[in-house]
């Protein structure tokens, strides 16, 4: 691996945690897709980082380009291909020397030799990038190689991913306004306070848990002692109960013998009482049979009377049912007739309403015509009076003019 690659990989490998923390905790308020870099300084910074990423991607693709000679001749100048080959040789030479220096643990290489080798690699790399920048088709060739290549070296790929993450963080920081920065600082302070309060709460809870565990252990030890004491007491109780059962069994056997003797005597006395009671029962049965016979006769008589009353009730109810059916049929007929009359009444009522409405409208029209006739009569009277007045005035004016004409003629004759 080249020195610049190693240095960039160390820089990226030492910064992922910082990048992750910054992106996750403090820069979530900026959305780069809706902002643009305005100042020239920020655009230059972003351009430098983009150029660095592009160059690292080219360095990562150098082994593939060198391994495929056909890619060096297609779309590239001959001098650029030779420069890339020379840089690859210098890098390989440096790698071999570094491996030799690392394998020789006792002998350390001189600082001048290492600096000369690194300087040669740096100069070769600068020369290669200068020619790639001068060549118009080199960038497109490397882009095509990157799009066609699926398997790349893992270390340069991680370096490129780290630089891209660094670019995102840089854009977020450059796009952050002072207000957003203040908001981020306030949020970080709030998160820090919340973190410290959570630590205090966790410490308090851990102390409470420890105290609870200690109390639980003490309670368990007390319960274990109680269980041992109860086991010993239970063992003693088992012995006492066995003795008690033995004594109780002996006493029960003795009581059983005495009860057996007592029960035998009582059984004889009860058999004598049973025979006496059986004799009394037979006598009562004979007496009750006579009473039962009289009651049976009385019951038969009552049942006969009830049967007669039921037959009479059935005949009366049959007549009543027939009468009820006749009345129901008559009621249905009258109900049907009432329904027809109600329908007829409804029709007549509608017709009556229409007739009354027509009469009302006719009366209103008549009244309106009379009112209009009266108004017209008054108007005609006024018009006639006005006409007569006009006619009279016209006649009077004509007479007045005739008199004046006669007087004039008379004066002229005189």
Automatic annotation (TrEMBL):
<keyword id="KW-0966">Cell projection</keyword>
<feature type="region of interest" description="Disordered">
    <location>
        <begin position="249"/>
        <end position="270"/>
    </location>
</feature>
<feature type="compositionally biased region" description="Basic and acidic residues">
    <location>
        <begin position="249"/>
        <end position="267"/>
    </location>
</feature>
<keyword id="KW-0969">Cilium</keyword>
<dbReference type="InterPro" id="IPR042815">
    <property type="entry name" value="DRC10"/>
</dbReference>
<keyword id="KW-0282">Flagellum</keyword>
<dbReference type="InterPro" id="IPR000048">
    <property type="entry name" value="IQ_motif_EF-hand-BS"/>
</dbReference>
<dbReference type="Pfam" id="PF00612">
    <property type="entry name" value="IQ"/>
</dbReference>
<keyword id="KW-0175">Coiled coil</keyword>
<feature type="coiled-coil region">
    <location>
        <begin position="317"/>
        <end position="378"/>
    </location>
</feature>
<keyword id="KW-0963">Cytoplasm</keyword>
<comment type="similarity">
    <text>Belongs to the DRC10 family.</text>
</comment>
<comment type="subunit">
    <text>Component of the nexin-dynein regulatory complex (N-DRC). Interacts with CFAP52.</text>
</comment>
<protein>
    <recommendedName>
        <fullName>Dynein regulatory complex protein 10</fullName>
    </recommendedName>
</protein>
<comment type="function">
    <text>Component of the nexin-dynein regulatory complex (N-DRC), a key regulator of ciliary/flagellar motility which maintains the alignment and integrity of the distal axoneme and regulates microtubule sliding in motile axonemes.</text>
</comment>
<keyword id="KW-0206">Cytoskeleton</keyword>
């Amino acid at each position: 691996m080249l020195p610049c690659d190693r240095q960039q990989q160390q820089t990226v490998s030492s910064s992922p945690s910082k990048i992750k923390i910054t992106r996750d905790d403090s820069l979530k308020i900026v959305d780069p897709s809706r902002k643009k870099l305005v100042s020239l300084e920020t655009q230059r910074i972003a351009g430098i980082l983009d150029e660095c990423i592009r160059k690292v991607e080219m360095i990562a693709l150098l082994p593939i380009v060198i391994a495929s000679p056909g890619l060096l001749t297609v779309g590239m100048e001959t001098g650029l291909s030779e420069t890339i080959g020379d840089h690859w040789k210098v890098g390989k030479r440096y790698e071999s020397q570094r491996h030799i220096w690392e394998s020789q643990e006792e002998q350390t290489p001189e600082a001048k030799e290492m600096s000369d080798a690194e300087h040669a690699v740096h100069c070769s790399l600068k020369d290669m990038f200068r020619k790639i920048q001068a060549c118009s088709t080199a960038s497109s060739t490397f882009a095509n190689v990157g799009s066609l290549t699926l398997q790349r070296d893992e270390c340069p790929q991680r370096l490129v991913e780290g630089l891209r993450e660094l670019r995102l963080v840089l854009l977020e920081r450059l796009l952050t306004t002072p207000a957003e920065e203040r908001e981020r600082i306030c949020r970080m302070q709030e998160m820090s306070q919340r973190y410290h309060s959570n630590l205090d709460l966790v410490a308090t809870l851990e102390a409470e848990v420890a105290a609870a565990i200690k109390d639980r252990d003490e309670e368990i030890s007390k319960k274990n002692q109680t269980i041992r004491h109860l086991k010993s007491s239970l063992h003693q109780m088992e012995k006492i109960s066995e003795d008690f059962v033995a004594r109780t069994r002996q006493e029960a056997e003795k009581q059983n013998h005495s009860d057996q003797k007592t029960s035998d005597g009582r059984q004889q006395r009860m058999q004598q009482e049973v025979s006496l009671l059986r004799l009394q029962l037979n006598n009562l049965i004979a007496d009750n049979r006579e009473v039962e016979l009289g009651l049976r006769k009385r019951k038969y008589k009552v049942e006969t009377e009830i049967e007669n009353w039921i037959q009479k009730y059935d005949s009366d109810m049959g007549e009543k049912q027939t009468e009820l059916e006749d009345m129901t049929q008559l009621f249905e007929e009258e109900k049907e007739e009432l329904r027809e009359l109600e329908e007829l009444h409804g029709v007549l009522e509608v017709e009556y309403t229409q007739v009354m409405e027509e009469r009302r409208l006719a009366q209103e029209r008549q009244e309106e015509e009379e009112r209009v006739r009266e108004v017209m009569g008054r108007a005609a009277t006024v018009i006639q009076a006005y006409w007569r007045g006009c006619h009279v005035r016209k006649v009077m004016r004509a007479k007045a003019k005739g008199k004046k004409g006669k007087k004039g003629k008379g004066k002229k004759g005189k």
